[in-house]
Amino acid sequence: MNVLKGLPEATVIREPSDLEPFLRDESHVHGVLPLAVVKPHGPMALRELVRRAKTEGFGLVPRGAGTGKAGGCVPTDRTVVVDFSAWPGDIHVSPQDLCLKAPASAPLREVKAAAEAQGLFYPPDPNSWESCALGGTLATNAGGPNACKYGMTRHWVLAVDALMDDGEIHTFGIPSLKANTGPNLAQLLVGSEGIFGFIVGATLRLTPRPSEFTTLLLPAKRWADLLDLPGRLCAAGFLPSAFEFFDPAVLSELRAHGPEEARRLPGEALAILEFDERGCTSEPFLEALLDLLGPMADGLEVASDERQRGAIWAVRRMTSAFLKERHPEKVSEDIVVPRSRLGEFFTRLEGLGIPSVSYGHLGDGNLHVNLLAAGETEPALLDRQLMVLFRLAVDLGGTLSGEHGIGLAKRDAFLALSDPGQIQILRAMKGALDPCGIFNPGKVI
Predict the structure, then answer these.
(1) Contact at 8 Å (CB) between 375 and 329?
(2) How far apart are CA 93 and CA 204, in angstroms?
(3) What pLDDT, in 10s, does the model give residues 135-167?
(4) What confidence tens digit (pLDDT) does each residue in 253-311 have?
(5) Rounded to whole angstroms, how far apart are CA atoms 392 and 206?
(6) CA atoms lying within 13 Å on the CB side of residue 102
(7) Distance from C-alpha of 34 to C-alpha of 20, rounded to nearest angstrom
(8) DSSP designation for 151
(9) Same domain, 387 and 242
């Protein structure tokens, strides 16, 4: 592509065979062949990319590790993929400020490890935390099991460094909690999936690392009892750091075809509960929890050491990969339903007759509903099934995405189910911040 000839501080990939790996992320969405892939090594590359994109009329699509699940980083017509995997920068921790600064290219596992090495904790932990890049988690406002107590990625962002329409990198925010100087532009960019500008680095808030963990494997004899538990826990003053679940259908799938440790999982349905507050390993805490659980505590397993804790979490972490390997064309959605309406959601889902299995984050109502037969389902029917699922979540006061984002995969549904006023405002913001429409065109709105 001649318009990228001589691009400074960058590696440019043009061969069609080398571009193929950039057509997909972990969603079911397929992109189109990009004009090129650019790996920028410095700000000069970004400045020149923005200039040429405006002059030559092509779009820029940001990409990190490619682990997203909404098609947010796949190329659309006449676009250049900007791969930030080689973006320079180191991870710096400031224990005095309880914060950490890192480039977008930093693997999330290294960000978390750097905090832990200082006795600190960065809570966001999407299932891909060992392979995803920090930039992608910022762009999508990633979640994970810890969101049950600690919230989403945006709750831990103090400042971002972002490439904007003028081709320059701007810093929005400061490395401190209190900054009340108008609307928070850093928060505007977090979760925006690159449609306003590209995040190239961030300053993240940290907290002291928890020193105690109580991890429970809780089999439920009745699926309905498990659905009532998140609300009961909250009402009684218990706030788990994680509350994960397996519904009867996904549990049957794991028992029949999963690894050996999964085939022995007990219960009609199953939950993993974890607490990390001070005193959670004490007898008074456990006794109060057991009193609340009542008959549900029958068969309860409590991890006695770090090895057992790791074994319990290993089953949860492998569930998505197992289902993907067994059903390569499955579609996994991440709808949200208020805790108080979980029972109603699953009753109505069963009545809809959409074949699915569910697992995920029961503690905050973020449900991974998997349509395992999506690959064999006629596309128009699949689209209708997904729209029915999304509409059910919205009707119950929830939303169609809890942590994966909108990207390309949910764009049509997002536009159809959102308040038109919200879409109008988002498009006005897009026009103001990206008047030439070069940043991740065709995504979200």
Answers:
(1) yes
(2) 9
(3) 999 999 999 999 999 999 999 999 999 999 999
(4) 999 998 888 888 899 999 999 999 999 999 999 999 999 999 999 999 999 899 999 99
(5) 36
(6) 28
(7) 9
(8) -
(9) yes
* Contact by Cβ (8 Å): 101, 201: yes
CA distance 214 to 138: 29
Task: Note the pTM of the prediction, 2 decimals.
Answer: 0.94
d(CA 384, CA 388): 6
Q: 355-390 in b/e burial notation, b at 16+ Cβ within 10 A? A: ebbbbbbbbbbbbbbbbbbbeebeeeebeebbeebb
Pairwise CA distance, residues 136 & 66, whole Å: 8
Give the SS3 label for residue 40: strand
- Interatomic CA distance for residues 231 and 213, integer angstroms: 21
Question: What is the identity of the amino acid at 31?
Answer: G
Across 56-71, b (16+ Cβ under 10 Å) vs e yields: eebbbbbbbbbbbbbb
In this structure, the answer to whether residues 259 and 380 fall within a common structural domain is: yes
**CA 342 to each of CA 308, 363, 367: distance values in angstroms, whole numbers, following the listed order:** 29, 10, 10
Do 250 and 373 share a domain, yes or no?
yes
CATH number, position 162: 3.30.465.10
Alpha carbon distance 93, 98 (integer Å): 8
176 and 237 co-located in one domain: no
Which tokens in the block code for residue 302?
A: 């409590």
